[in-house]
Amino acid sequence: MTAVVQQGYGSTDVLRVERISTPEPAEGQVLVRVHAAGLDRGVWHIMAGLPYIVRPMFGMTSPRQPVLGVDVAGVVVSLGADVTDLAVGDAVFGTADGSFAEYAVADAGKLARIPAGIGFDEAAAIPVSGLTALEAVREHGLVEPGHRVLVIGASGGVGGYAVQIAAALGAEVVGVASAAKADFVRSLGAVRCLDYATSDVTALPERYDVVIDINGRLPIGRLERILTPAGALVIVGGENGGALTGGIERQFGARIRSAFTRRRLGFFISSESRAGLHELAGLVESGAVRATVDTVRPLSAVREAIDDLLAGRIRGKAVIHVTD
Ligand SMILES: NC(=O)c1ccc[n+]([C@@H]2O[C@H](COP(=O)([O-])OP(=O)(O)OC[C@H]3O[C@@H](n4cnc5c(N)ncnc54)[C@H](OP(=O)(O)O)[C@@H]3O)[C@@H](O)[C@H]2O)c1
């Protein structure tokens, strides 16, 4: 099969489009004929091997899984042992090991049937970012109707879904993104979008029940000041925190600070589950959430898609279209 394979860690120069053996599903797994694969920041982290703190998980000098890509949408073509809840021919979306390829193996429990009314490209844009947003907004933010919610990093992969899910829950959502993407953020349901280059949200008088910080670099103390007395700060991630730790100490700092206040300050690592995918499918089918597909490129143009992501040219998600 054709796949995007990485040799070592580094820039997009480590990527090659190669012919390699088709993987075989182990117990509890299925083989998916990949039609489309989504691109998110996590893919860049695996390609770059950064921050270094993640390397024990992925491989010290090169990744144990050399095929890039996690988000997947495609058709089940074979079943490993003990898979009873999916069948050959099912059109599925979810997460896989190495989805920038014609075929990928996936744990059956990390796949669900594609929502009615959308195609493979749209479905591939949902899993990692949508699951993370769902967890941030609902499980950690505990967003309720009438809440005022601030989403920092509202125009990206996770943010595009966080804005929509919070708005669907009846919250009044304010986004933070670049000025060029303000219209996109408002189109997702935000009442307002602040430009991070010209306004410091922590210096404004507005207070929020929930702040979802997807890519802010603001100190926790300042973010705490814009919370209501029982508000919650949910840190999803953040770039440019340094090559060694990626700035994870900010997340741990929030947990420690949380012990000394009524406010809830914390972070989480998202989990990939069929239950979450079912919920996202329901939100898509009801019209509450739409897949945030921006560019769609072929497998041979993964490098260009990653360049677009790093240059901030993507509104929502980029998708790699593998086959019709
Ligand atoms: N906790 C978890 O389990 C988990 C799961 C998934 C992702 N993450 C992490 O979450 C982060 C975001 O991921 P993503 O896929 O959403 O990335 P993304 O698609 O690249 O989106 C990044 C967002 O951050 C915004 N941004 C850039 N500079 C900013 C600044 N100075 N202040 C505020 N916002 C700024 C961007 O706005 P413009 O594009 O408009 O400039 C964009 O909205 C990454 O660090 C990723 O590793 C964590």
UniProtKB/TrEMBL annotation:
Name of the protein in its database record: NAD(P)-dependent alcohol dehydrogenase
Enoyl reductase (ER) domain boundaries: 10-320
Family annotation (InterPro entries): ADH-like_N, Chloroplast_QOR, ER, GroES-like_sf, NAD(P)-bd_dom_sf
Gene Ontology MF terms: oxidoreductase activity
UniProt-listed Pfam families: ADH_N (PF08240), ADH_zinc_N_2 (PF13602)
